């Protein structure tokens, strides 16, 4: 299972479960009933719309003869992957002054959609640390391109 885990690390446990049920030619609805779960619950997990929980993972692992804890390990790696995605969507806000964005709700800034405005504001009013963080986040090429457009206007 270790090699399998390395290959599928970050995949939702429901996707693994779906593949396993298909591989063993097991009907999802009948499987859910066999382990004492609602078919809708199992369906939501398979679709990735619901998290795997410990109790359910133990039932599934026992029924499919999987290593105990395997599905929960998958869930943890999936959660880590999702958390990293969320953190990559915004700069390190501890390095940015909320005062710089006084006219907007700071926590609701869409950093991707508003990148031109953010870059212009930080480079016209921000500190060196703020400029460095915005350059790190968006990349030097993007920042230079937007700064160049600003100077051409």
Short description:
With 153 residues, the chain is mostly helical. Helices cover 65% and strands 0% of the residues.
Please tell me about this protein's structure.
The chain is mostly helical. The protein folds into two domains: 2-88, lambda repressor-like DNA-binding domains (434 Repressor (Amino-terminal Domain), Orthogonal Bundle), CATH 1.10.260; 93-152, no CATH class. Helix content is 65%, strand content 0%. It has nine helices and no strands. The longest helix has 19 residues, at 70-88. The radius of gyration is 23 Å and the shape is elongated. It starts with a helix and ends with a helix.
Summarize the helices and strands and which ones pair or pack.
Blueprint: H1 2-8, H2 13-23, H3 28-34, H4 39-47, H5 54-64, H6 70-88, H7 115-125, H8 128-138, H9 140-152
Helix pairs in contact: 2-4, 3-4, 7-8, 7-9, 8-9
Identify the notable features of this structure and list them briefly.
0% strand, 2 domains, mainly alpha, 434 Repressor (Amino-terminal Domain), 9 helices, 153 residues
- Domain unit count: 2
**Percent of residues in beta strands?**
under 5%
CATH class of the largest domain: Mainly Alpha
The mean pLDDT is 90
CATH superfamily membership of the largest domain: lambda repressor-like DNA-binding domains
Order of helices and strands: HHHHHHHHH
User: Can you tell me the CATH topology of the largest domain?
Assistant: 434 Repressor (Amino-terminal Domain)
Helical fraction equals 55-70%
Instruction: Tell me what the CATH architecture of the largest domain is.
Output: Orthogonal Bundle
Number of helices: 9
Indicate the low-confidence ranges by residue numbers.
Answer: none
Global morphology: elongated
């Amino acid at each position: 299972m270790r090699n399998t885990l390395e290959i599928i690390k970050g995949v939702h446990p429901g996707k693994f479960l779906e593949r396993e049920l298909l591989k063993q030619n097991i009907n999802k609805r009948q499987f859910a009933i066999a382990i004492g779960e609602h078919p809708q619950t199992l369906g939501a997990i398979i679709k990735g719309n619901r998290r795997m929980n410990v109790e359910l993972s133990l039932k599934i692992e026992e029924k499919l003869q999987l290593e105990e804890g395997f599905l929960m390990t998958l869930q943890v790696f999936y959660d880590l992957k999702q958390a990293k995605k969320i953190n990559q969507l915004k700069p390190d806000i501890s390095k940015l002054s909320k005062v710089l964005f006084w006219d907007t709700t700071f926590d609701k800034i869409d950093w991707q959609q508003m990148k031109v405005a953010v870059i212009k504001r930080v480079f016209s009013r921000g500190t060196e640390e703020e400029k460095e963080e915005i350059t790190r986040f968006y990349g030097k090429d993007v920042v230079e391109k937007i700064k160049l457009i600003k100077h051409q206007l």
